[in-house]
Amino acid sequence: MPELPEVETVRQTLRNFVLNRRIESIELKWPAIIEGDKEAFVHALCTKTILEIDRKGKYLIFILDDVAFVSHLRMEGKYLYEPRDTPLEKHSHVIFHLDNNMDLRYHDVRKFGRMSLTDKQFYRQLPPLNQLGKEPFDLTADELHGLFRNCHLPIKAALLDQSKIAGLGNIYANEVLYRAGIHPLSPACDLSKRRVQTIINMACDVLEEAIRQGGTTIRSFSSNGIHGLFSQQLDVHGRDGQICHRCGYHIIKRKINTRTAYYCPKCQKIIRRRRQIS
């Protein structure tokens, strides 16, 4: 699934192509991608100009003259910018015909992605964006420690909760915990404020590095031919059975709350706070 760096790469790439382009018409090949009234979606966007593309967490927000729409790529969604006469691929489900004889095509093999109209000025205060937590860049240790105080989930699962911290998915959560030296099974509520600050610091470092590298190339992600290079710098994700870069021990792979965790059992220690027994 594209995570914050991949979605940011898509945003930056698309800005180079579609800003100040007018949408002449829209084809819905798979209308279920659009949440709410499909006809209203098409009517609201046609003849409007794309002025900016914003992002929060894993969501893209296309801002037009007097309206905006939110797009979530989910598992395998991607945008293709192609000449209008390019043969339509099987899984191109929403096609925006632009005023320069080019198309912006939303391609999604699994059809899990979603788009919905929103208010141009207040979209961050409306669902689904107002249900997201802050991104690591905006979080303080006090805030995140408070969110974890009553969270008994393993820290790996807690980091994937977008209502607590937005933008981290499976790949980067694994990498962040490795750099922080924290075992993914450590209960979130047992982490000290100092360790929470370390998680925030490592999350910012990992995400900034990944954005500079164009994200991580995974099977379902590319941004108009731009393949992320951060996959070459992954320390644990996808490296089960391989040697840890730090200590030489073998990387372990296991399921935690239905998601796959990769970690070094020697470098990453389980943290449990001692509790008084009454």
**Secondary structure: number of strands:** 10
Task: Tell me the CATH topology of the largest domain.
Answer: N-terminal domain of MutM-like DNA repair proteins
Shape: elongated
Binned strand content: 15-25%
| Helix-strand pattern | HEHEEEEEEEHHHHEE
Q: What separation lies between the terminal Cα atoms?
A: 45 Å
Spatial ordering of strands, largest sheet: 1-6-7-5
Largest sheet: 4 strands, antiparallel
Q: How big is the Rg?
A: 20 Å
Mean pLDDT: 92
Helix content: 10-25%
Main CATH class of the largest domain:
Alpha Beta
Tally the helices: what do you get? 6
Provide the CATH superfamily of the largest domain.
MutM-like, N-terminal
Structural class: alpha+beta
Unreliable stretches, pLDDT < 50, 5 or more residues? 217-223, 225-229
Structure write-up:
By secondary structure, the chain is an alpha+beta fold. The chain has 2 domains: 4-131, Alpha-Beta Barrel (N-terminal domain of MutM-like DNA repair proteins); 136-263, Orthogonal Bundle (Helicase, Ruva Protein, domain 3), CATH 1.10.8.50. The protein contains 6 helices and 10 strands, in the order H-E-H-E-E-E-E-E-E-E-H-H-H-H-E-E. A 4-stranded antiparallel sheet has the order 1-6-7-5, covered by helices on one side. A 4-stranded antiparallel sheet has the order 2-3-4-8, with helices on one face. Strands 9-10 form a two-stranded antiparallel sheet. The protein is elongated. The protein starts with a helix and ends in a 15-residue tail after the last strand.
